[in-house]
Amino acid sequence: MRKRGLKFYAGMYRKILVQDLKSKMSYRADFIISTFGMIMTNLSGFVTFMILFHNFPEINGWDYHHMLFLYGFSLVALTPVQCFFDNNWNLRFMVQSGDFIKYCFRPVNVFFYFISEVFDVKGLGQLAFGIGTIVYAWIKIGIPVTPLVILKLLVFLLTASLFMIALMNFAAATCFWIKGSGYVMVIMFRFKDFAKYPSSIFEGIFKIIFTFIIPIAFIAYYPSLVILTPDNVPLLSWISPLYGLVFVYLSYKFWMLGVRKYDFTGS
Amino acid sequence: MSDLSVNEAVVMRNVCKDFKVLNRHEGLKGSIRDLFSRDYNTVSAVKDVTLTVHKGEIIGYLGPNGAGKSTTIKMMTGVLEPTSGEILVNGKVPYKNRTENCENIGVVFGQRSQLWWSLPLIESFKLLRDLYMVPQKDYEAMIELYRSLVDIDPILHKPVRQMSLGQRTLSDILAAFLHNPPIVFLDEPTIGLDVSMKAKIRELILGLNKEKNTTVILTTHDMGDVDALCKRIVIIDKGTKIYDNDIEHLKNYFGSYRTLKLKLADDTWEEYLIDEKTTDVMDVIMEKQKEKKIKDVKILEISTEEVIKKIYEGSAK
Ligand SMILES: Nc1ncnc2c1ncn2[C@@H]1O[C@H](COP(=O)(O)OP(=O)(O)OP(=O)(O)O)[C@@H](O)[C@H]1O
Ligand SMILES: [Mg+2]
After folding, report:
1. Which pLDDT score is estimated for B144?
2. In which band, very low, low, confident or very high, does the pLDDT at B3 lie, cut at 50, 70 and 90?
3. pTM score, two decimals?
4. CATH number for domain B3-250, candidates 3.40.630.30, 2.60.120.700, 3.40.50.620, 3.40.50.300
5. ipTM of the complex
6. What's the gap between Cα A145 and its chain centre?
7. In this structure, are residues B223 and B304 in contact, taking their beta carbons and an 8 Å threshold?
8. Is the CB of residue A183 less than 8 Å away from at least one CB of chain B?
C-alpha cells in the first residue's frame, strides 16, 4: 500500500478547504448574511461583557483590562474548534441515521475525513474580535512587546485551543454509545463560557473539576497567566502544552474507539 | 484457508454476524441508564454464510427485506467485523486492513450519496483522484471511458446537492469506479429511479465490468437489474444462504411454470402463474373466458421476478 503521511493529509485538507470555500462564496447572499450574523453575535457578547464588568473595578485582584485580556484570549483560543472541528456537531445525526458509514469507505483516517468535510467561516469573525480585544487590553495593561512575549502568546494560545478541541471531541463521540449526546455537547459548549473568568473565582471541588476533569481553566486562565503575570506563573501553566497534547490525543482515541464500537445502523 | 482462495475476489467461510441491540431509553436520564444497562436483545443478521465470488463476475446478492444483504456487504467492505467465520477480500481480511481494503473496493449505497454535497461533480472527482492517489493519466483515461459509456457532461459541473436522485446515483456509481478498484459493491443502486435511468445505469455497470473486468456484487429488489446484469445469483433469507447458482438453473427448476397473460376488453393485461404439472393452461383460459371477454392471450416462460417470488414465499413457509 502507498504511504499516506503528514504531507498527504495537509495537502488533502488544503484542497478540500479551497473547494469548500469556493462553493460557499458562490452562495453570496448566504455568505453575507452569515458574516453579518457572526458580527452581531460577537458584538452582543462583547457588550454584555462590558456591561457586566465595567462597574467592577476588581475581581480577585483582576482589574477590568485583565478581564478583557482573558476574554479576548478565550475568543481566539476557541477559534480553531469552531473553524476546523465544527462537523462534530453533525456527528450524532449521521451516526443515528447511518449516513456516517460513508466516512469509512475511503482509504484515509476516518477522523480526518470526517472533520475535513466542514470548515466554518463564522469562526473567523470571532478570531478578528478576539485579536482586537487582546491588542486593546495589551496596550492598556502595558505589557512590553518583545519577540519572546509574542512567541509565548502564540504557543499558549495554541495550547488553550487544544483543550476545547479535545472537550468537543469527547462530547461528540459519546453519540456512539448514548442517544442523548446532544445534551452532553450543549453542556460542554456552555462550559466554555466559564473560561472567560479567572479560575481563581472557583473554589474547592469546582476548582478541581474545572482544572483536571473538564479542564476549562486551561482554555484561557492558566495559559494567559504566562503573559499576564510573568513573575508568578503557576506550574500548571507551564505544563499545559503537554497536558493539552495528551488530552487531544486521548479524545481522538476515544472518538476512534466509538467508530470501532459503532454497529452501522441502517440499510 | 487454502492458498487458492487468495486469488478469488471474495471468499467467505462460515460467516456469522450478531447484533446486540440495547433496549434504549429516552432523554438524558435514559441515556445515562443505557450506559450501564445490560438489557440486550441479540439479532442474528447473517448465519453461517459460505460464499466465493470469482474475479470479473457480476453476482446478484438477493433476499427479502431484512435478509442480511447490507450487513454482508458491510462486513466485506471492512466496516463491520464478523462475529465468527472468515472473510477474504482481494486476499486480505477486510476488517483488519480497512484502509488498505478501501483502496481496492468501490462502494455505493443507494440513496446515500458519498460525494461532497456542495461541490460540482468534477471537483469531487478530483478530490477522489487525490485521495486514492490515482495517476493523472489513469484518471483522464477513466473520464474518457465514462464519456464513451454515458453522457456525463450535463452533470459534470453541477453541485451534487442540485442533482436529481437519478443523477446523484449515476455520479456515485462513477465515483465508485474512479480509482479502478478490482471489486465494486452496489447496494440497491437503482432504488427509486425511473425506467430510463435504470437502463442507463445497467448499461454503465455492464460496460465498466467488461472494460475493466471489475467484480461487481449487487443487491437489488428489481429483477430487471438481475436479468440485465447477473449470470449468477445468491439468495439469502433470514441470514442463511438458500440458493447459489446460475439464474438459468433456477428457471429450469421452475420449468413447468408458465406465466399466462390475458388481455381484457379494456386493453389491460392480467397475469397468472400456472404450474403445468398440476393445472392445464387451456383450462384456465376457458374458465376465465366464461367470466369476461378476452381479446388476446400470451403464454410465457416464468419470469425472474416470479421465480424469486416463489423462492421467497417458499422459504417463508
Ligand atoms: N446495526 C444494527 N443493529 C441491529 N440490528 C441490525 C443492524 N443492522 C441490521 N440489523 C438487523 O439485521 C437484519 C438484516 O439487516 P440488513 O440491513 O442486512 O438487511 P437487508 O437484507 O439489507 O434488507 P433490505 O433489503 O431491507 O435492505 C435485520 O433484521 C436488521 O434489523
Ligand atoms: Mg439493505
Report:
1. 95
2. low
3. 0.88
4. 3.40.50.300
5. 0.86
6. 26
7. yes
8. yes
